[in-house]
Structures are given as structure tokens and as C-alpha cells.
Amino acid sequence: MTSAMTLRSYSAINTLHRHDFAQLVLPLQGVLELQIGNIAGQVDQSRMAVIRSGVDHGFSAGEENLFIVIDLPHNESRICEQLPPFVATDAALKQYIPFIYQQLSMPSLSPVVGYSMVSLLLQLLIRAGPESLPGDRRLNAALHYVQANLAAELTLNQVAAVAHLSVRQLHQLFIRHVGMSPGQYIQQQRMLRASQLLTDTRLTVQQIADQCGYQNLSAFSDRFRQLYGQSPSTFRLSPKRQTEAP
Questions:
Q1: Phi, psi of 54 (to 5 degrees)
Q2: Residue 27: its pLDDT value, please?
Q3: What pLDDT, on a 0 to 100 scale, did the predictor assign at position 75?
Q4: 35, 100, 108, 147 — which has fewest CB within 10 A?
Q5: What is the C-alpha separation between 98 and 239, in angstroms, rounded?
Q6: How far is CA 159 from the centre of its chain?
Q7: Cα dist from 52 to 10, 37, 160, whole Å
Q8: Which residues of the chain are under the pLDDT cut of 50?
């Protein structure tokens, strides 16, 4: 399955349903009320929705509306497990969503362009996710410390100390507001940095592993493959190969 991007308008109440792939709902016009699992919210100009695979959800809408709906393949659906159901649209997302709409309005969308658009969107979402969380100073201190020390050998004791919390309290705060443990968040951010360095620099894979806190290249490659479905070297080359394909 590849990513399917469509423009949709909603005019009725839909009963709860689920599907075996993740889905993103991006705002263009109007408001969409959503129930995702046990969390209710809305998609509007200030937020979008992330519907995880296998999660019950339903919607209702009244006024004229238009949204971009993206069905994600299974390898990309895993990234959504790291995101909250509703993500605030920061400045980068607010600029990028109209670009996606513009591309979808074209007569045909190249698979290469579609692949690149979804990949970048997921990276922007992972960055924006924590910004949509409540402004807890302790949580923000922990998040900023992690971001500044991804190359170091981070321990939960260090992160907890910066936030003036016990390790148990830190874990509870992350689960409640980030939707994952501190350790999972650290791994997520390291892999995001790795994908950016693979795309934007000519550093060797070993150098990138070092900058992402991995001294063991094999462990770095294994973790990267689990998240992105391919090795770091293949990830770096695949967009180029697709562009050059006849």
C-alpha cells in the first residue's frame, strides 16, 4: 500500500469505525468534529488529526468544509504511534498544507512527488507534536534537554534531574502528555535527526550514528530499519533512484 491523498468534504454524522492503516486529516476550510478513541477534538485552521491504525473514530460536520485526507501505508503508520490524536499546526505546517493542496489540484501527481510530500509531512508532524502539548515547564525543560543532547549518552536520571522530577514522575508526565515513554521519545528524536542528516548532508552513516547517540553502527542501523523500513544507506539513496527511474 502506498500513501493515498484525497480532498474530502463532510456533510453528515458518521458512526464509529476503524481501519488497519493510519490516517491524517489536514485542514483547508471549515471545522470537522472528531472522536478518536476516547478523545474528542476538532480539525480546524489551528490543528489537524492523527488517526492511528485500528483505533475507533467517527466524525460530524455541518458548514461548508474541505480537508486533505492521507491514508498511510503500514511502514509509515508506525510513526503515527508516536503522535497525539490532535496536533497543533505550527508555522511550518500552515505553510506546507496549502502546498499539498496545490499539488493535489494538479491534473496528475507524480508518485515521486507524493512520496516526498508525505515523508516531509511526517517529519514536520513529529517536530510539531510536542508543541501541541500543555505548557508544563517541567515537560518543556525535559524536551529541550533531550533535543540539545541527542548525541550524548542520555540517561533518564539526567533528564529527570533537569526537570526536577523523579524518574517515575518523568515517565508519568511523558505518558500523559507525549503519549510515549521518555526512552521512546529519545529514540524517536534520534531517528528523526538521522533522517534529516541522511537527506541534507554528506556525512557518513557512522558519523550520523555518532551525532544521534549511537556508538554501535549495527544498533543504529537496526533501529533505523525498524522505524523507516529500510537501512540508512537505502533511505539516503532511494529518493534519487526513484527520480532517475525511467
A1: 80, 5
A2: 94
A3: 67
A4: 108
A5: 23
A6: 23
A7: 20, 9, 29
A8: 131-134, 239-246
